[in-house]
Fold these 3 entries.
Entry 1:
Amino acid sequence: MNIYQGHEFVDLGLPSGTLWATCNVGAVNSEEFGSYFAWGETNPKFLYDWNTYKYCNGHFKKLTKYCNKRNYGNNTCTDLLTNLQDSDDAATANWGKGWQTPTKEQWEELLLNSKFTKTIRNGVEGKLFEANGNSIFLPAAGYHWDNELFDIGSYGGYWSRSLDLESPDNAWYYYFDSIDCIDVDCRFGGFSVRPVHSVK
């Protein structure tokens, strides 16, 4: 068993050397759903919308951080931040320095270099990734939108730490239901976080 800062990980033999945790933030084993986070927030909450989102002023075109386009910024606020800082990363904030939410590229690498299949583990539906003689299981934990939890058992949504540069009110994430896809979604949405770290 490989442990880093109290959390188990596996080496899938990926070209970048990225090491993937075996459970979500807020969970103690791979089948537990864990917590749900808006992008750039480090604590779960009850209501997920633009009014409660930390880095905007109540509207998707009034962003106060992680904004590369003036027409999306609050009072034309812009910055050069395209990936989550550690202080805004749910993985780092909850698990400690050295852990982080995967980048868009790390999700792409995982899909490109592993065998992934839909499966059920201990009665929980999800996606199994296998490579290098090891595996990780991502439960279909659903997602939070407004004050409701949707699609448990049929949908898994996992944030990356990468901003959508075309529409900075969105960020990249990996999701699976009937398909597997890396896409963008509203930053206020409550999705799962599966941490990674690297020995490099």
Note: The chain has a mean pLDDT of 96.
Entry 2:
Amino acid sequence: MSIYAKEVNKYLVGLQNGDITQFKPLYESMQTHVMGVARYYLVDKSYCEDVTSEVFQKIFLYVNSSYTEGTDGYNWICRITENVAYNYNNRMPPPVKDLDKAEHFVQELAVSDDTEEKLDLFRAIDSLEPDSRELIYLRYFMGNTFQEIGEKLHISKVAVKKKIDKILSRLKIFIETGKR
């Protein structure tokens, strides 16, 4: 077992013994490794931060029940990361390959002179949940950046981008097919 793995084990054993001060050094030493493993296994790389956060939650929750002192803690954490990434791949919608086209499509409809196209866009926007409508309004009608929207809603700009990307793909499908 490497010196690094022994250090990780020391932190995990400390957590098992109730020393929560061991969590911060564990996080600091493993965060980049966990993100690297997550990035490798995820289909949509934009979920790396979400997976990393969930992995450390699982470590904290399950260190007493699933980690066995003396085993390789580094590999235990890597397996947790693989499993969380696998779960994300299965429960999150696949990335939209033509997202730029979807965004362009919505932008064009927003400034279109064709009344029927605008009505289609507004019907599609009306079909959204209130939170989603607010994001679209702030981004495309008020011209706010992802950063500005994130600051207003107290979420990260990455989270704003992910949410808007999902909304755009739903809007495009709704406009083209008339189905949600």
Note: Residues 157-177 form the longest helix (21 residues).
Entry 3:
Amino acid sequence: MGVDRNTIAKGIKELKTESDTTFNQQRIRRRGGERKTRESEIPDLNERFLEVLKNHTAAAPMSEKIKWTNLTQQQIVEGLKAQETIVSTTVVKKLLKKHEYVKRQAQKKQTTGVTKSRNEQFENRV
């Protein structure tokens, strides 16, 4: 495998001498060192996002909480880009969830029945 026997022995010795609690408490990196979110980098991102969706939002008449947009995530990204705000579709997805937008589901309608004259409207040519 290309690993020195002494290195393996040293690792086994460390595992045996360290208790579980001290072993798990040691950190390689300090806390807070991760990448900053786009929301923290762009303070008015929420307002810009809602501005893009302002004219493209619909809601369920029976529930004020259920709302959706007819824009795709990519179209929202392009709208934000027009406002000089560069974000990815992943950020847009998080913003949609944060502001409680849901996916609009296609509704299937059942036929109301079969009539004898149903085909006449397609065959009647003037």
Note: The CA atoms of residues 9 and 15 lie 10 Å apart.
